[in-house]
Specification:
CATH class of the largest domain in chain A: Alpha Beta
Strand content of chain A: 15-25%
Shape of chain A: globular
Order of helices and strands of chain A: EHEHEHEHEHHEHEHHHEEEE
CATH topology of the largest domain in chain A: Rossmann fold
CATH superfamily of the largest domain in chain A: HUPs
Number of helices of chain A: 10
Helix content of chain A: 25-40%
Strand order of the largest sheet of chain A: 1-4-3-2-6-7
Largest interface: A-B, 30 and 30 residues
Largest sheet of chain A: 6 strands, parallel
Structural class of chain A: alpha/beta
Oligomer: homodimer
Number of domains of chain A: 2
Radius of gyration of chain A: 19 Å
CATH architecture of the largest domain in chain A: 3-Layer(aba) Sandwich
Number of strands of chain A: 11
Chain lengths: 290, 290
């Protein structure tokens, strides 16, 4: 089947509503900002594995970027992204313009008020409001049964799961594992901003998380001790400037003192002008999942 | 067909999604806070006229009431409302509890930022955020093709039409005429709060709007002159305390200086502890519509 590229909201919505009316069709949606890497492709594979028809969106969402962030330089290799989607078997690619998504006069925003304040939300005011607004719009347009998000953006994934529950959207949220480079660096479209020296030092994020995982597995359950160890490991790379190093409950995203099942260790650093995040989940079974 | 009453969100959503998958079924939704009167019934008739299966919700939405407003005393004549819905041919009645709609931990709100600040929004901070949030939730649960709202709440109707456009909800918004008592008072669930003396004086709202309509038809196009005339007419009833008397553009809800097609004259008054609103639309053809 040839992948269909759709740029207009009414065309996309009409096509998706017609699909949704077919008895056995389940729509599996992978919203992206493009510049696709193996992490995104794993999401497409996951919705296929769930028996869904894969639908991908490519949209660099202006309202989730702050005024000093990288919206204008965010990479947009459209043809390359199309090829990757088609290779992975995507049936539809939705690629609207910013004017199509936010015509002049647009004035409705969707806001999450409890999970959005800390971690990345503290350093990026308005970021998650932009995310929850665009995801709500995309869900209305694409009408998915399932939507897949990567756990690399753990706070985003939790907020979106909570968004769909709070607004009663009939969409299952599938949170998928982090995909990593051979040396452990979490895949990110922003990794391509890194100079060779910055790239080499960036492995410090996952190494800090590995330290925390090792400490926990050896019996340490004090959040303060894990935070200290992660900060120390980050400090060994001169170019990594920590924005936050946090140990939180995976459901509430509130800081915890004692580490255990469903604890998330999350990091954000600046490397030169590039912002990188990563996290370690201690899952419900108490296993450390990088 | 016997009307089905559903109280659980998952049951309602499942039922509505199954209906929505039927090829020729169009869902016509009438969201209400109950205490139904002829105004609400006209909305049910209108969605039937459009060939839709009528679905009504009864839910007194706590988050659209301010702390000093009438949430707790708002009338809830449930059995009477059920009978009226059934008589009008409603197929489904959705009547969730407040705990069902807002479980503890609910933290997502939908906010309109341009049309919501003036008129009723100025006196009722947070009111329209409550309205846009509950309507978004209800639309996700009921999955309507069409939803009907009365023009008595003109600002609400405009905000909801804009909400669905901004968030790309696949719902047509049908704004229906005001239904009035024989003496012209706009029907409202809150009219039953009025003492006989207050009830008699409340006709001043529509009479003020009739003054404005008469002035416009006789050639007056100055908004200030219409406002003066409406205020004067209200003043003749000693018990009507104006909250606002406004002449605005019907699309933007911004004040205009010159009255013409698509102008809205809108009033809010306090009568004792009861708040009443009413409006006059000068439609696109330049006709005055009470």
């Amino acid at each position: 089947m040839v992948m269909q590229i759709i740029r207009s909201i009414p065309d996309m919505q009409k096509t998706m509503l017609a699909l949704r009316a077919q008895p056995d069709c389940r729509i599996g949606f992978v919203p992206t900002m493009g510049c696709l890497h193996e992490g995104h492709l794993s999401l497409i594979r996951q919705v296929r594995r769930l028996g869904c028809l894969p639908v991908v969106s490519l949209f660099v969402n202006p309202i989730q970027f702050g005024p000093r962030e990288d919206f204008s330089r965010y990479p947009r290799p459209f043809d390359h992204d199309c090829r990757l989607c088609e290779q992975e078997g995507a049936a539809y690619l939705f690629a609207p313009s910013a004017e199509e998504m936010y015509p002049s006069g647009a004035s409705v925003f969707v806001e999450e008020t409890k999970l959005s304040g800390g971690l990345c939300g503290a350093a990026r005011p308005g970021h998650f409001r932009g995310v929850t607004t665009v995801v709500t719009k995309l869900f209305q347009i694409v009408q998915p049964h399932v939507a897949a998000f990567g756990r690399k953006d753990a706070q985003q994934a939790r907020i979106i799961a909570h968004l769909t529950a709070c607004l009663n959207m009939p969409v299952e949220i599938e949170i998928c594992p982090i995909v990593r480079e051979p040396d452990g660096l979490a895949m990110s479209s922003r990794n391509r901003y890194l100079t060779p020296v910055e790239r080499a030092q960036s492995v410090g994020l996952v190494e800090a998380l590995r330290e925390a995982a090792g400490l926990y597995r050896s019996g340490e359950t004090g959040a303060a001790a894990l935070i200290r160890a992660m900060e120390e490991r980050l400090r060994q790379q001169g170019l990594l400037i920590p924005e936050y190093v946090a140990v939180v409950d995976y459901a509430s995203l509130q800081p915890v003192e004692t580490v255990g099942p469903s604890t998330l260790c999350a990091l954000a650093v600046k490397v030169g002008s590039t912002r990188l995040i990563d996290n370690l989940l201690i899952n419900a079974a108490g296993e450390t999942v990088l």
